[in-house]
Structures are given as structure tokens and as C-alpha cells.
Amino acid sequence: MGRAWYPVSKGCGFESVKKSLVWLVLYAGDNRGKTAALAPEGLIGYMEKRKKKMVSGAVTEARSMRGHKQLAKAVSLAKKSSGSRLTVEQLANKTCLSSRHLARLFSKEMQMRPAQFLEHLRVRAAIHRLEETTDSVAQIAKDCGFGSRASLYRAFDRVVHTSPAEYRAQHSKRKNEGRAGTGESLGELPSIEEEDCGKVAV
User: Could you list the residue range(s) of the whole structural domain that residue 146 is in?
Assistant: First the structure.
């Protein structure tokens, strides 16, 4: 004799389980116990599957939340260290992550690599110095964590698509014309805060 069939609600709450149990009692009464003994096996199996699915979902959500908090910490540390020569490896160590895991988090939530994010932060710091001071490009490169004037020029070429000297000249011209803006060509960097670890604000 094949396994008895009975409808089981697709929900996973108390009401759906109660409905299934009520149907099971009615089924047992109608069939005088001939095949009802097989039905509990199906119900128990279904409930076990639902339990495993719910536990798996909870674990996945917990991991996601933990990943967001770790990413928020990494972003916060990177911002605080934008003037230093902080490396991706050092950032990963400070957040108790592997470099590979940190890269996965940045790629998923920020749509950029950790090294790109660090570079953007340094370029922004350099832009502020170019706009607000008369410091030399070499001094700005040193203070903003680039290490050398050449490194600053390469980063500017990648991010701003111009040189620091040209950017400063363009900014001075815009300022004289009354339309200067800070980092106009950069747009907004993605950011994520620990207290809002389920979202990424752009």
C-alpha cells in the first residue's frame, strides 16, 4: 500500500501546522485508522524540512549581518586612516578578516575593491588640500598616504582623469568665476554605517 496523501499548508507558522493536524485527525477518523498511521510520518518529515529551512535562513541572515558590521568597521577605519599608507592587508587584519573575505564584502556591497576605496579616500584628501592650501604636490602626496609625487599623479589619472596641478588650476579658475565645487568630477563614494548594517547608502 502506498503512502497516504494529505494536504499540508505551505506556511510555517503555528496556524498552518494546526490546520495540518486537524486534517490529519479528520483523515484518521474517516479511514478508521487503516492508513492514517502512515500520515504522521509525512507530517513529521515536512516539519523537519521546514525547520531545517528556517534554521538555514536564520544562519544566512546572521552571517549577512555580521558581514555588514565587519564591512562598516573596515570603512570606518579606512576613513580614519585616509592620510596614512594603510594597506588592504593591514585593513583586513584590523577587522579580523582575510584579505579575500574583505575583498568579497567590498565587491558585493560597495561595487569596488578595497584598494580602490582606499585610493579614492586618499584622492579626496589630496583634492581638499589642493583646493584649500598652497602646499606643494609633493607635500600633499606625502601627507595623504601616497608616498611619492608620482603615485599621486597616477592615482589622479585613474580617478579624476587629470593631473593634480591641472586640477588645482581648474579649481582656481572655477573659484574665480564663482562656481567652484569640491571634487566635482568624483561623485559620491559608497558608504556603509554599522548602525545601518542592512543597507548601503550611495
Answer: 114-185
Q: Which three cell numbers stand for residue 104?
A: 568579497
Domain-embedded: residue 125: yes
Report residue 80 as a C-alpha cell: 580614519
Domain contains 158? yes
Concatenated DSSP letters of 136-202: -HHHHHHHTT--SHHHHHHHHHHHTSS-HHHHHHHHHHHHHTT---TTTTT-PPPB--GGGTT--B-
pLDDT greater than 50 at residue 201: no
With b for 16 or more beta-carbon neighbours within 10 A and e for fewer, the 55-92 pattern comes to eeeeeeeeeeeebbebbbbbbeebeebbeeebebeebb
Between 57 and 157, name the one with better pLDDT: 157
Please answer whether residues 130 and 140 qualify as being in contact, where contact means their C-beta atoms are separated by less than 8 angstroms: yes
What amino acid occupies position 141? A
Domain contains 60: no
Query: For the whole model, what pTM was predicted?
Result: 0.59
Dig out the grid coordinates for 186 from the structure.
568624483
**Mean pLDDT computed over 49-56:** 60
Q: Which residues contact 64 (CB under 8 A, 6 or more apart)?
A: none
